[in-house]
């Protein structure tokens, strides 16, 4: 049944005249605090790269692998951490995630080689992935539907605050106490957060700081019937179109945020010839505008719902406006670069404004798409749905980072990347609306009774096969170096498209890629290229055959 009904009026008092307390906003403040720490930890490396390059002695290729290690771990962590939140609950699951990402960040000060540093960042990404599944599930537990987008926008603003604080910490601490000091501030703040979280967090129904009126407000739009708190398995979520709508939206839009996070500073420096000190102003402007968009996007949809708009109309209208606001960022790399020099370059400030508006629109879009999970799914499924979406977004981010490097190397321009960044949200909005036109809520009774169609199962298994096939294809090559040297170079060849060329043919071409490609076109395609394709095909076939056993809902199997 469609849930397209206008939200109930907000309760200001109970029947006894008791005014609701506001402890839910204290919980939201703790989410903001944790998200800020999360983004300081991940952003500080970007501010210290030049310093660490001299201290750790890495080259640009090794630095790229460190970033890839973080992204890969972040993708894996979304699945593991989302499941952790469902199994042990938000109070202890969130605390565990923060403790372990804090230890991972602190371990950075013990590193002295690129490999050690990369391992530290890998585990940081693995545990930092727990932040958003935990935070979104907390919002679903503590806020009524009409306030969730606002709460999500507020805590999500911590990501921008963290990105602003990171370079400030680097400037203040590194000259006085060295680069290691910058990695020791957030662990101290995280200890305070963990103590406050464990002491203060309980479910609303169990919390003595939330009075009866606040509990009634939180539960005012909850579905009727008995509450089932049992975690939902991922195979029961994938058959629902609503899950794919969220995953597709995250896959298309999260990579753009990663692009801004990792490439904005480099863009300003190269495009407008700005030195390191001059980057602070435009970057701060970008993230301040992103903060405005994060809070404003969440507030606007909540305001529309208070005016009587349906959940679907309020969320979609806000997301559509955000998608349109992103479009002008396409013009950022086309602005004149000679309107001044250094930090006084007017073109740079216009570009920073366009990127900032786009980043703010992303955050507004993100606040609403995150909130859609609690609109469309029961609370017990929210953390797992967010984890699946985060996994999709992280893989999209890995692709975007890799493709951005190749595009920049080939074209020596940022235009194509900004075209992708500018149009991704319109495409995401169209796909999301096509898959969830009315943002219908999944009924508890049917949540675990659907079966994933076999074509979808085949696609998922095929993707897994391709991922497995890439490292397997490495075994078909002849390598003159040890594994630690040859395998990273092999991974780089995948990004550059050289996976389809045998090393001996590349050598015969004397470094000429075009001649090597001619050899391939002549029919010299090798197992190096065929292995991922064969693995994908084989796994797709296996998935199609076995989907009824592995992915089919047990409720549909019969006895």
Structural write-up:
The structure is a single chain. The protein has 559 residues and is mostly helical. It has 3 domains: 12-220, MFS general substrate transporter like domains (Growth Hormone, Chain: A, Up-down Bundle); 237-450, MFS general substrate transporter like domains (Growth Hormone, Chain: A, Up-down Bundle), CATH 1.20.1250; 455-556, no CATH class. The chain has 21 helices and no strands. It has helices spanning 23-56, 60-88, 90-107, 114-128, 131-142, 145-177, 179-182, 185-200, 212-218, 234-237, 241-272, 280-306, 311-326, 346-376, 379-411, 415-435, 454-474, 483-496, 503-508, 513-521, 527-550. Helix 2 packs antiparallel against helix 15 (379-411). It starts with 22 loop residues before the first helix and ends in a 9-residue tail after the last helix. 46% of the residues are buried. Mean pLDDT is 77; it is low at 1-11, 499-527 and 553-559.
The total domain count is 3
Q: What is the level-2 CATH architecture name of the largest domain?
A: Up-down Bundle
Number of helices: 21
Mean pLDDT: 77
What is the rounded distance between the termini?
29 Å
Label the structural class.
Answer: mainly alpha
What's the CATH H-level superfamily name of the largest domain? MFS general substrate transporter like domains
- Output the helix-strand order: HHHHHHHHHHHHHHHHHHHHH
What is the fold named in CATH at topology level of the largest domain?
Growth Hormone, Chain: A
Helix percent reads: over 70%
Low-confidence stretches: 1-11, 499-527, 553-559
Estimate what percentage of residues fall within beta strands: under 5%
CATH C-level name of the largest domain? Mainly Alpha
Cα-atom Rg, whole angstroms?
A: 24 Å
- What would you call the shape? globular
Biggest sheet descriptor: none
Annotation, overall tally of beta strands: 0
């Amino acid at each position: 049944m469609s849930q397209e009904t206008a939200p109930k009026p907000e309760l200001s008092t109970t029947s006894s005249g008791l005014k609701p307390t506001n402890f839910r906003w204290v919980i939201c403040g703790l989410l903001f605090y944790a998200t800020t720490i999360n983004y300081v930890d991940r952003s500080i490396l970007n501010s210290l790269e030049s310093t660490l390059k001299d201290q750790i002695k890495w080259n640009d290729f090794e630095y790229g692998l460190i970033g890839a290690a973080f992204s890969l771990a972040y993708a894996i962590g979304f699945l593991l951490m989302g499941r952790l939140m469902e199994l042990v609950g938000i109070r202890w699951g969130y605390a565990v995630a923060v403790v372990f990402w804090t230890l991972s960040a602190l371990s950075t000060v013990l590193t002295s080689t690129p490999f050690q540093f990369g391992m530290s960042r890998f585990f940081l990404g693995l545990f930092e992935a727990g932040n958003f599944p935990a935070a979104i599930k907390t919002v679903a537990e503590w806020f009524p539907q009409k306030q969730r987008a606002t709460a999500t926008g507020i805590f999500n603003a911590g990501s921008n605050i963290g990105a602003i604080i990171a370079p400030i910490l680097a400037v203040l601490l590194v000259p006085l106490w060295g680069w290691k000091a910058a990695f020791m501030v957030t662990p101290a703040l995280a200890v305070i957060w963990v103590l406050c979280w464990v002491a203060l967090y309980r479910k609303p129904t169990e919390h003595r700081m939330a009075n009866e009126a606040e509990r009634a407000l939180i539960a005012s739009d909850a579905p009727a019937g008995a509450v089932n708190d049992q975690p939902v398995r991922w195979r029961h979520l994938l058959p629902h179109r609503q899950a794919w709508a969220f995953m597709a939206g995250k896959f298309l839009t999260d990579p753009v945020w990663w692009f801004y996070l990792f490439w904005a500073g480099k863009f300003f420096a190269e495009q407008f010839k700005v030195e390191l000190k001059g980057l602070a102003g435009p970057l701060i402007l970008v993230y301040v505008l992103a903060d405005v968009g994060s809070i404003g996007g969440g507030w606007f949809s909540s305001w529309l719902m208070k005016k009587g708009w349906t959940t679907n109309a309020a969320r979609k209208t806000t997301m559509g406006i955000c998608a349109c606001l992103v479009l002008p960022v396409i013009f950022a790399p086309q602005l004149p670069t000679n309107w001044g020099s250094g930090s006084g370059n007017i073109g740079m400030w216009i570009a920073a404004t366009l990127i900032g508006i786009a980043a703010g629109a992303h955050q507004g879009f993100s606040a609403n798409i995150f909130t859609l999970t609690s609109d469309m799914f029961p609370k017990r499924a929210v953390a797992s749905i967010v984890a699946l979406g985060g996994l999709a977004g992280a893989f999209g981010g890995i692709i975007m980072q890799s493709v951005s490097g190749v595009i920049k190397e080939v074209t020596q321009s940022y235009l194509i990347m900004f075209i992708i960044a500018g149009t991704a949200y319109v495409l995401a909005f169209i796909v999301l609306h096509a898959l969830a036109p009315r943002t219908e809520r999944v009924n508890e009774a049917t949540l675990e009774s659907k079966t994933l169609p076999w074509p979808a199962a085949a696609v998922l298994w095929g993707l897994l096969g391709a991922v497995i096939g890439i490292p397997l294809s490495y075994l078909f090559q002849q390598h003159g170096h040890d594994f630690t040297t040859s395998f990273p170079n092999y991974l780089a060849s995948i990004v550059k498209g050289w996976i389809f060329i045998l090393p001996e043919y590349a050598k015969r071409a004397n470094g000429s890629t075009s001649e090597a490609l001619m050899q391939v076109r002549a029919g010299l395609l090798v197992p190096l290229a065929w292995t991922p394709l064969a693995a994908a095909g084989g796994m797709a076939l296996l998935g199609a055959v076995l989907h009824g056993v592995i992915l089919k809902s047990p409720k549909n199997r019969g006895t």
